[in-house]
Amino acid sequence: AYTIGAALSFGMIMIGRGSGVSSPADVALLSRLRTFINGEAPSLADGRRQQPTFDVNLTSPAASIALGLMYLKTNRQDIADILTIPHTILALNHMQPSFLLQRTIARGLIMWDAIKPSEEWLQAQIPQPIIRAIQARAQGKPIDDAHEHAYLHIAAGCCFTMALKFAGTADE
Q: How far is CA 15 from CA 20, 121, 132, 138, in A?
């Protein structure tokens, strides 16, 4: 609750200011958010592997939302690419499925103008290996649960971003 509360507070203070990020302090904020989202690179000290200084399972969802709010409607692909959606089974098994929902929503907040109210747009947001696995399941082949969970969470995130953009437009 603390991390999400802090992320929403930070995001609301910085809402949409990402397009004007140019000062060293703003660049440092972006770098720190990137680290909170994707984790620290493993480091060695005295020949021993050091423990990470924070738990990415706590920071990643919050930092994703903060980044999405900070770069709201900026359409910055380079920033949206920080919020990568993994597509390999190994990477999917190392990430909680709910993180995919939050990353998808944050990507939608950033790439606001790219959101389209269509099945084609939704399918374009899902990595091809995940789509192929879901198609294989429809043919009766067994698939890993990680693919199914990823598909459902990404699709839900896409639906949520479409609802945010098109709510109140009276556009079916």
A: 11, 25, 37, 41
Q: Using CA atoms, how far apart are residues 147 and 137, in angstroms rounded to an integer?
A: 10
pTM: 0.85
How many angstroms separate the CA atoms of 70 and 51, rounded? 29
Report helix, strand or coil for 22: coil
Whether 100 contacts 125, CB under 8 Å: no
d(CA 19, CA 112): 13
Burial of 106-118, coded b for 16+ CB within 10 Å and e otherwise, reads: bbbbbbbeebeee
Tell which residue, 85, 75, 83, has the closest CA to residue 110: 75
Element (H, E) at 78: helix 77-80
For residue 100, which of 64, 34, 152, 154 has the smallest C-alpha distance?
A: 154
pLDDT in tens, the chain (172 residues): 888 898 889 888 888 777 765 677 778 888 888 888 887 766 655 556 666 677 777 888 999 999 999 999 999 998 899 998 888 888 888 888 899 999 999 999 999 999 998 999 999 999 998 898 888 888 888 888 888 899 999 999 999 999 999 887 776 6
